[in-house]
Amino acid sequence: MEATGVPFRKMHGLGNDFVVVDARTRPLALTPAQARRIADRREGVGCDQIITIEPPRPDHPGSAAFMAIHNADGGVVEACGNATRCVARLLMDEAGVDHVIIGTLAGPVRADRADGHHVRADMGPATTDPAVLALNRPVDTHHVDLHQPPFTDTVAVSVGNPHVVAVVPDAEAIDLRGIGPIIEHHDLFPDRVNAEVVTVRRDGYLRMRVWERGAGITRACGTGACAVVVAAVTRGLIPRAPTRVLLDGGPLLIDWRAGDDHVLMTGPAATAFTGILDESLLS
After folding, report:
1. Does residue 212 contact residue 224 with C-beta atoms inside 8 Å?
2. For the chain, which terminal residue's Cβ has fewer other Cβ atoms within 10 angstroms, N or C?
3. How far apart are CA 103 and CA 122, in angstroms?
4. Do the two domains 5-120+268-282 and 127-260 of this chain adopt the same fold?
5. CA 113, CA 228: separation in Å to the nearest integer?
6. What does the pLDDT read at residue 49?
């Protein structure tokens, strides 16, 4: 049977999965309802985010494409580290090059080939500056009390998108499914927030679990991994050096670079399958 519709590629970075659509020649302006239908794991394709690869925008000179990101709930977000690596791998393979610049709502991101199927992405500067985080009221971003244990002494970090990080003795013991929605919608964050719990292991690795705004618990969050390294360094818990962050889906290598505060993230980018989005999902 011949299928008609919009071609897509199902990709993932450590199990954080995406429906990726090339919209450079056939524009695809997704509505929130369409994004929710595509992301539905029973009646759609199923994913954490829908990614559209669009023509480059003039405010990102030198970029190969613009990457638009819709969460599973239909909302548009600024940045996604795992998706950046996936799109970068596609664009580099397509052009036969070893580096690429991708435009995002958080600004341009440079990505380079690393070993094997790994990609290194420069996620830009990370900061705890309240002005960048655009909080609803003044707070000490190094010690934010959200009055919801264990998020009572947290670090708020922007990596192009907002995060709040709780350092805990055992990340596995936290009821993230119960507390995650409360933190995501906390009134301190006007655009909602990603919530991470992190434990510093004896070997220096960080064990992180994440509740992503608009997607819930995911197996990996690239910007979240960047945020927990920034939080741990800020608290003096680890040195400012390349650090492995262990997520539910596997490890990412994070380097919060001194000098310009850019965060470099290295990890895998994989294709699971390709297919066609039926027109019924886009109606």
Report:
1. yes
2. N
3. 12
4. yes
5. 24
6. 97
